[in-house]
């Protein structure tokens, strides 16, 4: 159903939103589809699910303050955590295999974000315009393991969606 992402010659990917009531987000290069991000709305805690060619992940908040997102695999084993510190716009991803990266906004005025690592430098750049159904993912670094790139793309879009929902809720109250 999905193509395995292993082509390091691709420099740009797209996240395309399908549907408005129950949206799904597809990762594509306009030729192949590499996976999708979907949400389960009826659970007590909102969860995001990612399906790729060879992996299945779920993202769920841990704890009361909702500052940590646990990333689990198909067997509900925690394979990583994304932690956002209080009063910070930076989120730190720590995977069980030792991979670490930071996700942050490049500018306060722009809807552009970046995944960076101390080892690999800038990995992905996410351009997510507010009223667009397509987000652009620029792949910056070819030395990053290819299997982690779809996970980073989906996790970045998930964080952006959560932040927009929180900002909209704060503006309406």
How would you describe what is shown here?
A hairpin with a 6-residue loop joins strand 7 (about 80-85) and strand 8. This protein has about 170 residues and is mainly β. It is about 15% helix and about 45% strand. The N and C termini lie far apart (about 40 Å). The chain has one helix and twelve strands, in the order ββββββββββββα. The mean pLDDT is about 90. It has one domain (about 10-170). It has a twelve-stranded antiparallel β-barrel with strand order 1-2-3-4-5-6-7-8-9-10-11-12.
Instruction: Note the main sheet.
Output: 12 strands, antiparallel, barrel
Considering DSSP H and I runs of 4 or more, what fraction of the residues is helical?
10-25%
Mean of pLDDT? 89
Global shape: globular
Number of domains: 1
Order of helices and strands: EEEEEEEEEEEEH
Q: Give the end-to-end Cα distance, rounded to a whole number of Å.
A: 42 Å
Task: Give me the secondary-structure category.
Answer: mainly beta
Lateral strand order in the biggest sheet: 1-2-3-4-5-6-7-8-9-10-11-12
Number of strands: 12
Number of helices: 1
What's the arrangement of secondary structure elements?
Blueprint: E1 12-18, E2 24-28, E3 33-40, E4 47-52, E5 56-62, E6 68-72, E7 78-84, E8 91-95, E9 100-105, E10 112-117, E11 121-127, E12 134-139, H1 149-172
Antiparallel strand pairs: 1-2, 1-12, 2-3, 3-4, 4-5, 5-6, 6-7, 7-8, 8-9, 9-10, 10-11, 11-12
């Amino acid at each position: 159903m999905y193509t395995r992402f292993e082509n390091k010659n691709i420099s740009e990917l797209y996240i395309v939103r399908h549907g408005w009531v129950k949206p799904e987000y597809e990762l594509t290069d306009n030729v192949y589809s590499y996976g999708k991000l979907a949400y389960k709305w009826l659970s007590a805690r909102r969860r995001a699910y990612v399906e790729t060619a060879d992996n299945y992940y779920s993202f769920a908040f841990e704890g009361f303050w909702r500052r940590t997102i646990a990333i689990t695999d198909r067997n509900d084993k925690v394979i990583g955590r994304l932690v956002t510190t209080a009063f910070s716009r930076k989120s730190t991803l720590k995977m069980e295999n030792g991979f670490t990266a930071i996700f942050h906004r490049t500018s306060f005025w722009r809807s552009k974000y970046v995944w960076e690592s101390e080892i690999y430098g800038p990995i992905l750049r996410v351009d997510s315009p507010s009223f667009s159904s397509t987000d652009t993912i620029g792949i910056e670094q070819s030395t990053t393991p290819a299997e982690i790139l779809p996970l980073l793309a989906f996790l970045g879009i998930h964080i952006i969606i959560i932040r927009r929902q929180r900002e909209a809720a704060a503006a309406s109250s």
